[in-house]
Amino acid sequence: MTAQRPQRQRPPSSFNSAQPQDFHSEFPPYPAEPSYNPAIPNRELPQQPAWEPDHDDYDDSPDHDDHDDFFSGSPSRGLQHQPSFHQEQLPPSSLATNSIRAPSPPASGPILDHSHLRPGKQAALLSHERTLELYRANAKKTQDPELQFEFAAFMIEASKSLPIPPSTPGNLLQVEKALEKREDLIKEATSLLKRLADRGHPASQYFLADCYANGIGTVKNKQDFDRAYPLFVLAAKHGHADAAYRAGTCCENGWGCRRESAKALTFYRKASAALHPGALYRLGIAELNGELGLSKSPKEGVKWLKRSAEHATAEFPHALHELALLHERGIDNVLFVDFEYSTELLAQAAELGYAPSAYRLGECYEYGKMGCPQDAALSIHYYNIAAQQDHRDACFALTAWYLVGSPGVLPQSDTEAFLWAQKAAEGGLAKAMYAVGYFLEVGIGTSVSMPDAISWYKRAVEKGDKRAAQRLKGSLNQPLPGGPGAVLRRGENESDTGKGGKDKDCVIM
């Protein structure tokens, strides 16, 4: 009697087919794109004939189809029967008997050989012109308005970054050719956008209107709201929230149309229905201040601001800042004072890059306001966020920090102090203009230059700075404030400073 051979048990699988697993919770979905697979032979696209930009080359006819998987929008066609690296590769016998696995690869070698993916010696990035040609060829072949719109937007962005050589007597021809190339890109892009807009594509309608509003593709590159406003309205009717908001701003300010508050409110409310943070913020401010024909209603205004703050973006962080200011002082029977929540709102706006919020937080952490501890690192951090966006008060605050430094946080540097003061002065801050004049007179962070110092003093006087006026009234030869060469005044009785026991302000500030 022959003993029966025991059946080999497959190890238990961690995948339970009875309970579908949600892979998207760990790996976000990606759009289907044709990817390299070594099992598929390489295919070469047919060479495209030379082509000059012309909007008639974009074929919109439904009969146009080159049966190419890449342009037909079905990249997975032809790949559905290819094996996946994530599936078990079993020999034909194992599919039926479910008993014998394919032999494992040797441990010494790699499981997957990626040597064919390594760039060769001839590898190089495509030139800007070649990239544009390939993008243009693909846009010509597709019937998808979204892809054609993306190509038009790409050309507009490419025109902005197109390098223009500096104009010199010897390269006027090169400059002219570069400008002509930029104009050709803009002309081709706007031509394509017009065709898409005429076909009712909302994104193209809005983008073309935005170009006109910013002087792109217009006569002498001037803003043309007469052409922009109708396109904003058209895109708003198709449900484009940004277009509805921009149409509201046009009606409110009379750009390309009559100034009509009632019509502006209609567009703002249409955009707010789509939770547009800019429209929600504008309605909130209008309710708070009684603007656009509305009566004052702080309660309703706060409601709109809260909704805007919930959907704040880097482009529209204003509601966060406004709510923070309201919680700082409170509104009777509407909003209570809450410093902790106010600083939290300011931090959210600062993280979105809103300069006024970052500057306000820098002040709080410098002087210990609104319940914040005095923290040099945080103060400098938030000042720097605002200063990077040319917030002139933040730039001048960094001047003060660099003059004294902060051990372990910021090294003392007269040069940096002068440069930040100069940046604030160029932004139009009167006390910064006086400070730059003082630095140039004394030689702090820069070489002494009395003519430049007098020039900055004069500019400060024009802004109403009284100290600069005193320096110009024959007192330039008198001792400088605080004694010979003195720059800082550190109070002996710091309790009188009113700045949390810290006084690092310069006399010149």
Automatic annotation (TrEMBL):
Where do Basic and acidic residues bias regions lie? Answer: 489-509
Taxonomy, superkingdom: Eukaryota
Looking up Pfam families in the UniProt record yields: Sel1
The ranges of region (Disordered) come to 1-115, 471-509
Keywords, comma-separated and alphabetical: Repeat
Q: Compositional bias (Polar residues) at which positions? A: 1-22, 73-101
| Compositional bias annotation for Acidic residues | 54-63
Instruction: Write down the PANTHER family for this protein, in alphabetical order.
Output: CHITIN SYNTHASE REGULATOR SKT5-RELATED, PROTEIN SKT5-RELATED
From the Swiss-Prot or TrEMBL record, give the protein name: HCP-like protein
What organism is recorded for this protein? Tricholomella constricta
